[in-house]
């Protein structure tokens, strides 16, 4: 009896505490709701052809000499044929040259007797990256509603005005929570209770 009397005497304060707790919990859950950041990147690779048909050497040095035996050639056509047949040769020192070709896009080295780089093509890679950033919030699973209305009791054939609030947690179609408010019978009476709902649509 003491518990019942205590609840009857302090029902208003119990309802106020429940409503204040529900409001504070709803505000905390809404403020602590983390944002979802989604980053999408599209990368397109393009190869540009950069031709250089007359490259100029930056460096040219003689690295060594090699001895080669070359046929003796006369300016006279007949003597030249005779010389080629007789296989007369002479020792000649041939310089081996190393040449360095360079630019912003390539480095090339060629070596030999009077070497030259006729042309070069460089296939430069360029990446075009498009970035899309989407910031969104996941759906809020908490809901705080205020309600007011009039209930009709078929048995007693009386209208009962009601005003109050509901704090609902909605993880799925099933919704659970608490409610509190006041009803008007002969005088205003505080009410509090639990709420269970199932969303059909």
SSE string, helices as H and strands as E: HHEEHEEEEEEE
User: How much of the polypeptide forms β-strand, as a percent range?
Assistant: over 45%
Walk across the major sheet and give the strand order: 6-7-8-9
How much helicity do the residues have? 10-25%
Average pLDDT reading: 77
Question: Radius of gyration over alpha carbons?
Answer: 48 Å
Shape: rod-shaped
Number of DSSP helices? 3
- What is the SS-derived class? alpha+beta
Number of strands: 9
**Which regions contain 5 or more consecutive residues with pLDDT less than 50?**
none
Give the number of domains. Answer: 2
Main sheet summary: 4 strands, antiparallel
Terminal CA distance reads 45 Å
Overall description:
With 201 residues, this protein is α+β, with helices and mostly antiparallel strands. It has two domains: 2-34 and 138-198, no CATH class; 44-133, no CATH class. It is 19% helix and 56% strand.
């Amino acid at each position: 009896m003491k518990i019942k009397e205590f609840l009857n005497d302090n029902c208003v304060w119990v309802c106020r505490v429940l409503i204040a707790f529900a409001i504070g919990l709803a505000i905390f859950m809404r403020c602590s709701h983390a944002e979802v950041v989604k980053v999408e990147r599209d990368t397109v690779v393009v190869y540009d052809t950069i031709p250089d048909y007359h490259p100029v050497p930056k460096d040219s040095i003689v690295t060594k000499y090699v001895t080669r035996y070359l046929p003796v050639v006369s300016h006279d056509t007949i003597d030249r044929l005779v010389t080629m047949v007789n296989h007369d040769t002479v020792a000649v020192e041939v310089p081996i040259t190393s040449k360095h070709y360079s630019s912003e896009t390539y480095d090339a080295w060629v070596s030999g007797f009077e070497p030259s780089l006729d042309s070069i093509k460089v296939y430069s890679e360029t990446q075009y990256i498009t970035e899309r950033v989407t910031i969104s919030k996941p759906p809020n699973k908490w809901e705080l509603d205020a309600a007011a209305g009039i209930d009709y009791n078929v048995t007693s054939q009386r209208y009962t005005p009601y005003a109050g609030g509901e704090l609902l947690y909605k993880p799925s179609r099933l919704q659970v929570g608490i409610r509190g408010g006041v009803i008007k019978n002969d005088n205003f009476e505080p009410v509090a209770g639990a709420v269970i709902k199932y969303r059909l649509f």
